[in-house]
């Protein structure tokens, strides 16, 4: 059909600049064609020989049709599997206005607090929910999943243990198997012994440093641990409890009976199962551990006008500052999902949640009595939502009949476990009962539901019935009508700058377009409604999706196979290093524990290496930002006998394609090490070169950077790893669902395929771009970056560039000289807010600089607007340099300016209100107002408040 030639390409929607704009940018750069620029930028020795071999690009409509076909291969049965994942009712007002709303999902981690107060408040609400429900003092703003949260807790309690000779973590044998699997992985690197046993005092031997309990137990029953907890503490040991958040509405919170840490999943608070994720895990502990907590904590502080403001607190614990000494490697977490869970709590309030939990418990009891009346034995004397029946010879027939009725139960030998959730109805209980009746030749008419209902009393031990109040703060008691809720959500959203407003030029973070067509399938029931442990024959759609993505990403990375278990880039790093470790071990190399890491590496690299039990040796960088090859060679040779690996980011975090990368890989291999490539900068490689081609052995991809999963205000993400052939056998396995072979390492995530439901976003992106489209995206990203460089380099020195003076997909603007006149890089970052922009990455990888990454998705018009803003700010600095304007009393130091400040009756500043708020003309058409003035960074750390404060509390602090 050669006559029908117009076919709209998704590529032209994803890539920002029009052809006219591309030509304008090329002439600004003095090159004739994009390929000429690429030749000047990407070293010829690493260029891919062949074009990407991927299926032809699909239009948006064609993709959505295909995605529907794939989705329909998933069978959405009613899930009673439980074991940490439950079906939910996601309130429409949250689904549409948060989960499906780019105003919430396209934001970045709230480093720039003044334009992030909305999500900071929602995350503070989350922390309040968690501290209230767990009965502990302090909570973080989410971890990746329950199992990794448990592993973080194990490590924290291990590091803080009193008896340094103790190295055993006593784990309840009735903890969830996926959690135990992840604990095994984490224990290896530190020589921690896991004792998986019953939790009895006789097991509290002297070598135990802490105990891990599940509450309610994995089998659904509930034990009163109070006396045991006292015994643990009497021995100087500590306790971590994995708790079911919903159950805590009815049960005495673990914090009240002695838990030192409580972890769990907040999925039950309105977040779909999504075949394993994403969901926000929680981590709560005592105030005494506040400096040891993994991940992000939101805290209360005040702004420059003395008003209430929020920010991320105690960042000195985190990987980007403490590196290999960090409390964990967490960078991307699960912000969006924590925000959703917090809104669920806001919408339902304390009574609403209690009603939901009580209804779940009542229905579980109804089922218990109804099925018992048929003559079955129910094995849990106490329970919240899970009943357990002995089936004897009927096990097989029950399973078959349940499947006939499109229901999944949790089977274990001759026992069946059934977990009730928020979606369960009376009719569902009847259907389940009918199945139990049928297999023993009875019918529903044999069951007296009225009697069963009358028998409902309490299945929770009297001494464990919750007495304490929760969610008493007005925020959880004010927005229960949909209108109130809608407006509350929107009022917070309006405080946050997202990709809906302007480009977010964060270097290393790749804030590109998250296209609507990529997002649409995520909330389809056929992707959202699947339990991660659903029977394989119900998940063919997912298997196809994951299989295709595996093939495509293998082609893109030049590797043999991918693992989709890691939930973030940092988890990918950790997984990759553990795979390398297993490889060395398999060859009898038990001593290889040295990991070389360039000084410019991202903080997660050393933090992950340390988590993997490796010793970090830092390799120098030269004046051009490249790895100092001589230093690398010397250190590789010095440590040859113990060399484990090199972690290297490519192109480098300095935004340069190092010419020596192939040689670097060869040096490491020659000395017995493996090359771990940090793939965060893959956006500069796709289609032009690849980690496999360059010579790396493992690489993670941040699907939330290069492959269009939105950042969600600090997560979710996915960090799958690709490996060369020799490492394939060691890819992570999973206790419940086989994902690798016999030699595979233990699990790194709770779910076999991590946050599986968002994989569809990357699948969509690749399918709609095709090989050429992806390659063009890379080229456009490089073009956009070089265009910005050309516009800004006369105003700001650009640190580092390649041999032809080109940068890769990002560049570093040096702001250190402005310190001479008192201007800090933070002042520029804050002043950019007045111009309607989010700052580039501040002080990474070089202190006192800004790292700019435009991505391919920005048009030239947007790049120009951004450059105009930075140039105008440079002129503001010049006025200070010339002495025309005071060094302390100026528009930069007072930035950002709120509407309240600018419109106040009193105005005493040395510059005009116009200068403060509307310094460039484009702002008149559209102005984004920061909701608070400059936040006080130190106050919030001095007095840590990390749950919603009452007005009185806040005034006292
Ligand atoms: C973003 C980033 C990481 C960490 O990835 P997460 O997904 O946030 O854990 C690691 N290295 C580099 C260079 C990065 O930019």
Automatic annotation (TrEMBL):
The glycine cleavage system is composed of four proteins: P, T, L and H. It comes from Sphingobacterium spiritivorum ATCC 33861. The gene is gcvP. GO terms for biological process: glycine decarboxylation via glycine cleavage system. Residues 777-897 form the Glycine dehydrogenase C-terminal domain. PANTHER family: GLYCINE DEHYDROGENASE (DECARBOXYLATING), MITOCHONDRIAL, GLYCINE DEHYDROGENASE, DECARBOXYLATING. NCBIfam families: gcvP, PRK04366.1. Keywords: Oxidoreductase, Pyridoxal phosphate. It comes from the Bacteria. GO terms for molecular function: glycine binding; glycine dehydrogenase (decarboxylating) activity; pyridoxal phosphate binding. Its EC number is 1.4.4.2. Belongs to the GcvP family. This is Glycine dehydrogenase (decarboxylating). The glycine cleavage system catalyzes the degradation of glycine. The P protein binds the alpha-amino group of glycine through its pyridoxal phosphate cofactor; CO(2) is released and the remaining methylamine moiety is then transferred to the lipoamide cofactor of the H protein. The keyword Oxidoreductase applies. Its cofactor is pyridoxal 5'-phosphate.
